[in-house]
Design goal:
Elements: E1 9-12, E2 21-28, E3 32-35, E4 40-45, E5 56-61, E6 64-65, E7 69-73, E8 78-80, E9 82-86, E10 92-96
Antiparallel strand pairs: 1-2, 1-7, 2-3, 3-6, 4-5, 7-8, 9-10
């Protein structure tokens, strides 16, 4: 079970995008994330008429390491650490360390 999943609201805690927050768009490999409007990079692309791609400067999200983000706690509206807990019925759920509440039910 991963601490951060696709669709989670996260806050960047380190790096040049520190303080920004957004939703996780995808998980790349085992430890990299794409977060919307965070770590924006510019890529110079050559036009390709066969694939209908115009040339120019394209701005897109760059990958960020999962250790540089924390899950946003909607109750306190602050970033929070994530832990695990096994429920009585045997399910393993993610919890917020500060409040002990389940992240997903």
């Amino acid at each position: 079970m991963k601490r951060i999943r696709k669709g989670d609201e996260v806050v960047v805690i380190a790096g040049r995008s520190k303080g920004q927050h957004g939703r996780v768009l995808s998980i790349l490999g085992s430890d990299r994330l794409l977060v919307e409007n965070v770590n924006m990079i510019k890529r110079h692309t050559r036009p390709d008429p066969s694939r209908n791609i115009p040339g120019g400067i394209v701005e897109a999200e760059g990958p960020i390491h999962e250790s540089n983000v924390q899950l946003m706690n909607p109750v306190t509206n602050k970033p929070d650490r994530v832990g695990y807990k096994t429920l009585g019925d045997g399910r393993k759920v993610r919890i917020f360390k500060s409040t002990g509440e389940a992240v997903d039910t």
